Amino acid sequence: MPIEATRIDTTRFRELFRHHAGGVVVITLDAGTGPAGFTATSLASVSLAPPLVTFAISATSSTWPHLRAADTLVVNFLGHDDHELARTFATSGVDRFAAPVEWRRLGTGEPVLEASRRWLRGAVRERIQLGDHHLIVVEILHIELSPSDRPSALVYHRGDYHPVGHTPLTAST
């Protein structure tokens, strides 16, 4: 029996997902018109063979026209102390690559954030329009893992950024 679609209240939909923590990354690229980037919490691994990841971007995002034209990009994984960087790349109408943001170009031309301890470079394989967003499928071409004494990450939960893994657990006495 077919399932009948019902209209979902967008406010309730957003509230539901505000309670679902998502890892924070900044996606950077340059499609020939200068560096562009945005903060995302929708990154997901999809396949090991070939190595694929996906993320979503709003069709109204100022970065979408750049991403629509880009062949490659960098996914910068943010650490526990990178909340200001996440906010910068989530803010519309600002130069996201202006100081104090530190970044450099890879030999292949893509911008990468200096603060990123881990990143991947990938080739855009598919752009799929779904509702008011586009799902981007990326094949991983290169992975950079900087040595770290302990894992750390930044997550987005309930409308704010939160550090994960930066403080070791201690036994209570």
List its salient traits.
about 170 residues; mainly beta; Pnp Oxidase, Chain A; seven-stranded antiparallel beta sheet; three-stranded antiparallel beta sheet; globular
Write down the Rg.
17 Å
Topology as a string of helices (H) and strands (E): HEEEEEHEHEEEEEE
Name the CATH superfamily classification: Electron Transport, Fmn-binding Protein, Chain A
> Segments where pLDDT lies below 50 for 5+ residues?
168-173
CATH architecture assignment name: Roll
Adjacency order of strands in the biggest sheet? 3-2-6-9-10-5-4
CATH topology: Pnp Oxidase, Chain A
**Shape type:** globular
Distance between the termini: 58 Å
Number of strands: 12
Count, helices? 3
Quick one: CATH class?
A: Mainly Beta
> Percentage of helical residues?
10-25%
Task: Summarize the biggest pleated sheet.
Answer: 7 strands, antiparallel
Mean pLDDT figure: 88
In total, how many domains does the architecture comprise?
1
Approximately what portion of the residues adopt beta-strand conformation? 35-45%
Describe this structure in words.
The radius of gyration is 17 Å and the shape is globular. The strands form three sheets. A seven-stranded antiparallel β-sheet has the order 3-2-6-9-10-5-4. The C terminus is likely disordered. A hairpin with a 6-residue loop joins β2 and β3. The protein has one domain: Electron Transport, Fmn-binding Protein, Chain A (Pnp Oxidase, Chain A, Roll). The protein has 173 residues and is mostly beta strands.
